[in-house]
Every structure is written in structure tokens, then in C-alpha cells.
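Hi F.,

I've been meaning to write this up properly since the lab meeting, where we talked about keeping a consistent format for the predictions we share between groups. The idea is simple: the sequence comes first, exactly as it goes in, then the C-alpha cells exactly as they come out, then a line or two of notes. No screenshots and no reformatting. I'm using this chain as the first example so we have something concrete to point to.
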Amino acid sequence: MRITGLATGLDMDEIIKNSMKPYRIKIDKKGQDKEILEIKQKLYREVIKDSREFYNKYFDVASSNSLLLSKNWSSVQFTSSNDSLVSVTGSGDARVDNYKVSGTVAKANKVEYSGSIENGEKILINGVEFTLTGETERERATNLNNALKEAGINVSVKYTDFIESNTGKDNKSGFVFESKVLGKDSGFTVGGKFSHIGIKNNWEKATAATITGFKSNDFKIDGDNVISLMIGEEKKEITINGEKIKNEDGTVDNEKLIKELNNELKSHKLSAEINDDGDITFTSTVLGKDNIVNPELSINDNLGTFTEGKNEVKASTTVELSNMSNKKLVLDNVLIDLSKAEGNIDDYINKVLKEQGKNVVASLSNDGKNLILTSKLSGEDTKVDVSILEVEGAIAKGGVDANLTITNSNGGKYVHTGISNNVTLDGVNFKFNGDITGDAISITGKQDVTEIKDNLVKFFNDYNILVEKINKLTTEKRNRDFTPLTEDQKKEMSEDEIKLWNEKVEKGQLSRDMDLTRINNSLKQAMRTFVDGTGGLNLEKIGISPVADYAGTKNGTFTIDENKLTKALEENSEEIMNMFIKNTPKNDELTYSKKYSQTGIMQRLKTTLYDEFMTVTASLMKKAGFEGTSMSYNNDITRSIEKYEQKMSDMEKDFSRREQALYTKYANLETMMNKYNSQQSYLMQQLGLG
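Output, unedited:
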């Protein structure tokens, strides 16, 4: 605490405060400028936040509610007379119709094992041995499921207290093994004895063609070197001047030579290497035997030696067909019962492998005597194991293919067969949950556009809110009489007064902002440009009309006549859907404007919103950043704020230094005045005046 002015009678604090006021005003001005940037960043980030939420709500196709998904434009609702057996949903392509459904669903093969399998016991499934672990039966079943999944065997297992037994005995518990793939051919076996068959061929990687027979000293340093090669039927010549590859000692510089060769030959799919002995090897940059023909490469008329590359050889196993007649074999951990094969055996095997999702393909040898089983994968670890079931264990049974008949109101029939209990016809998805053994189930379709209409109303309401916000930010005029409050000013105001003042400061800070104006114009253009190929539809024809407020905050917003929209959806829902979500044409010959005119309104909006708000390269993201992204601190405004803070810190230090200098100066004055007062007092005493 300073006590000043005792000698001089001056209020030193007030004098120094007034003296430093110009410097404090400069610091406060920097603080106000910084706060203006913080306000702008806050306003930008609010727009980014609202726009990202709008995008995620309506345009993110990962969201089940996205309006870009055709299923959310279904104007037909279907009801089933028995939802527990058949459930039906319509997409945007669905039409009103009634259906009758009958038949049986696809079922999985399974094996029931009553009793317990103890901890540590081993079990064989499709020839693969597993050791059961776990303290309880259910824990062992869970662990075995994980092991089966890791082994790539499409079989699940559960422990149940309700084994379906034909013995007539109640209270049977045990393990149920069931194929994860439905259908009659999705077999497997528990237990049994297998023997490996066939001749294996290991995977061989593809190699590159090479051209050898050259040395680095084949190149001259005192003239041009000519490399000649055939590209197709055309002869190419490449010239390398000796000065470019010469060492200071007058010999060939191998590093310079390699650089020149690779620069010249890379466009011809060749690369060059030179070993320590100066031998040059040219190598094809593409692998395989068939990807490059002998280019007849020569250097200064010396022809090289061409060695062709080798194609990749996939891992395979060859089995004699005579050893496989009506047998059960295990291929890539899949049990295949060849006694069920109809037609060509390789076609049947491929059918089963495809259903099981396996990367092996079967084919017959040219003489038709052998079956060749080839892996689709590459790598040293790939192999194709084939085993024959010699002694049967418990063979899974009960699997059947679906056989369902769907009849529409015109008498048209579709018979669905195979391993799936799901089928989509004319935009209508049928999901079958059980056999229909009695009367056919009735599916009734009716027009109902309420949900689509409601979704569109919500969409335009949210769109209007976003556009109004951007309009307000870009059209509000800034009142420059209101600047951010200093700390001293805040001390003289109430909280409500500060709040009102700050609101006036924020107003107009983004007036005529170029980025927001550009984005706003893009959104409005997306809405008002006609979409070609939608039968002449536009927003106004379906009851969505622009607000006549060309200078206000509602410029670019819309009102909705819900009755008119409902009627339009009932009459032409598919064309309306296309008007909104039609994809951009892929034809590269079309101009940008032509592609734009053929793109749906929501697809246009999605592109604008994604480019302007969802990517870190967007101009607003670079300018203001957004919380939770890599641009949160790495943006222009944040960097400017940091510079202001550093400048203010430096100015505060300078302020303190100047202030301390003044206090020192006035302290010296106090000292001098004390001496003067002492001398005056002494003289007065000596003169008898004291």
C-alpha cells in the first residue's frame, strides 16, 4: 500500500492515474478489438453448429430418418393380416396394391445334443477341433461361439433347458448347434472322422519382367546415348547426353545415370537399378506375364536380354472326381453334401460356397476328371484344405429353402425360393417370419402421405429458421456507438444494463459478411432452380411458395399450403421425390450447369452444406473453427485473438513499467520536499521564527 503526498500535499495516485490514462485507453482499445473478434467467432460458430445439426438431421444417409433415403418417401402404407408371420414396408417406389402370401420360410439345419459337455472336453465341428472352456454350460456355449466365429465356421451354439426331443421325455436340456446360413444346403457335422484328399498347389506371387545384359560403362560420357525400345508397334528412342551422367573424374556417375533412366522410362512402365558391379537391370513396374511384352530394349545398339514375368498363382487343391461321388466333403470349413448336387458338381459347390460367403471357387479340369478348388485370396498363408467325411458324426438336419408365393391383386404371381426370408418386389419389402400353412396372409396397401407431408413441413420449417438467422446476421446494421465495455465501464452498470449493451454490440457484427452471403445465395439458388426430368414440377406447384420479403429476414424462406402439398403427394409422390432427392448425373460430358439442373433440390443443399460446414477445408471452418474438430484452435480468428492477447500482455508490462517510473519520480519529489521542509524548519528556528 502506497502512502503518498505527505510532504507535497499532492494526491499522487490520482495524478499518476490521469497521467497513465492515455496508455490505459490504448490497452482497453486492444481489448475491445479482441472482444469484437470473439463475438464474430461466436456468431460464426453458432451458424456452423445450426447448419451441421440441420445437415445431420436431414442429409446424413447413415441416419435412418434421412430424407435422402427413398424408403422415407413411401406414400403407401401396408398392413398385414398376421404381422407375426409377414411384415411389409414400402419404399418411395411402392404402389398401392393388395397381396396374398403363402408358403414356407427358409430354415437352418441344426443338431441337438442333450446332456452336458464338460469344461476341457473336445468337440469336432466340420473337422475342426475345439476345446470347451467355462465354468457353466452357458459360459462354455458363449466361448465356443466365439471360437467358431474366429475359425470362420457359420455355426452357432446355445445351451437351453428346452431341447426339442422326439424321445417323449420332458425336462431335457442341452446344446443346440445351428447353421447361421439358412437353407437345405447349409449343412455341418458335429463329430465324425475326416481324411484329407487332393493335391495342393501353394500360392505363388506375381513377378515382374526384367531386361539385363547392360553395364553402366556402356554409356558414353562424350556424346549422346540412345536407348531404343518398342512400345506396341512403334519404336521409341530416348537420348541421354553424356554430360548429364558424368563424374568430375570423367567416369559415369551411377546415381546421375539412374536418375536419368528412371525419369525417362517411368512413362513406359520401366524402372532401372544399378548394382555395385555396375550391372543395370530394367524392371517392369507392373507384375505378371501378360502385362508387358518384350520391348526389345537396346542401349547404343546393344540389345538386352528379356525375361518375362510370372503371373500370380492362387493357392488351390485338385481332387479326382472319382473319389468324391455322393460323398460329404469339408471345404474351407464348410460341409458340402455332394449327394444333393443337381447338375454340374462344380456349380453346386460354388452355390454352397457363395451362400456361406467363402472365398473359394470350384471348376472342372479340361478333361472333366478333376475338380480344381482355387482360393480367391492372395498371400503366403492362403490355402485350400479339402477333407472327406469317412465316418459320420451328428449330421445337421432340418434345413429347407424358402418356398413362398406372393400374388398381387391382378393375379400376378412371384415364387420366392432360396436361403433368404426377405424379398423386395416393386418397391415393397416382404419379411417372412414363419410358415404360412393355413389360409394365405393378406397384405393391404393404401395411400397415406401424412408422414411424408409432415417430414417436408418440418424440413422447411427448419430450413426457414436457418435462412432467417443468416439473413439477420448479414442484413443487420452495426451501431458503432456501442463498443465492448471496459472493466471500469462495467463497474458503473447493472447486470441487465450490461446484457442489453452487449446485445447491441453483437448486432451487425457480420453485416454483409462475404462468406455468409455466398452460402445464403447458394441455398436460395438450390431451392429456386428447376429440376429437369421431373415432369415440370416446382415447389410452388406442390404448395411450397416463397415468402414475398425481398429485403427482410424472411427473404428466401417458404410458406406451405399443407392441403395442396398433401394432394400433390397423393397424385405424384414419385416425381416429387425425384424433384427433391434425384442424384447428380455421372455423365462427364455434361456441363456443370446441366448437371446442376438435373440434380434434386436436397442433393444440391447437401452439397452446399457439406462443402461449407462439414469439412475442415470450408472457408468458415478455416476462419472461425468449430468445437470438437481439428479446427477448434487452428483457425484465423483464434490466431488473431492470440496475437491480441500477446500484444495486450506486452502493453500491460509496459504500462506497469511506466507507472512505476512515475511513482519513483514522485517519490523522489517527496524526498526532496522533505529535505526542503527540514531545512526550512531549521532556518526558521535559527532566525527565531519557529
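Notes:
The radius of gyration is 42 Å.
Residues 636-686 form the longest helix (51 residues).

If this format works for you, I'll send the rest the same way.

G.
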